[in-house]
Amino acid sequence: MKIEAKFQLGLLKLVKEMPLDEINVVLLCEHVKSNRQTFYYHFRDISDVVESIFLKEKNSFTLKYKNFDGMIKQIVAYTNSKYSFLFAINKSFCSEKLESFFYSYFYSSISNLLGDIKKIPNGNSIMRYLCTLYSSEMMYWVAQKRREKNEMLVRRLKVIWNYFTVQYHLDLRRI
To answer: Which CATH superfamily is domain 1-60 in?
Structure first.
């Protein structure tokens, strides 16, 4: 196993036992039976490990779905499968890493589905706004300990999607 993967796996295990804010480099190194020099050779700090976990996860996603439902199904399934880790990250000093992960997921996914959105007037702004809305919704859902069912989250995301893919164009024509 590569040393980076050992630190990533070690952090994932430690987060199940204690809040991320209480985990430091020394504790992580003891847990994976490595020394601090090795850690600092590969990472700057604990948030760097978190970021590497999200990068690895992002690279494992496929963009082969053909519609909105496939895009949402994939991220909701991922969130459910990694919920305890994501909740711990959301409550920690690394919450911006989680928000960035969601934003990046939606940016690449929506680009895949609506490749021509950037060609319309203000397309990049619309894209950034849409991704910000989606990542905020996911962050809220994670923070609320999934108090609502998956279907409610998906319904909210569909309302946003339908507005931007159907209604927004109609509203622009009226202006």
So the answer is: Tetracycline Repressor, domain 2 (1.10.357.10)
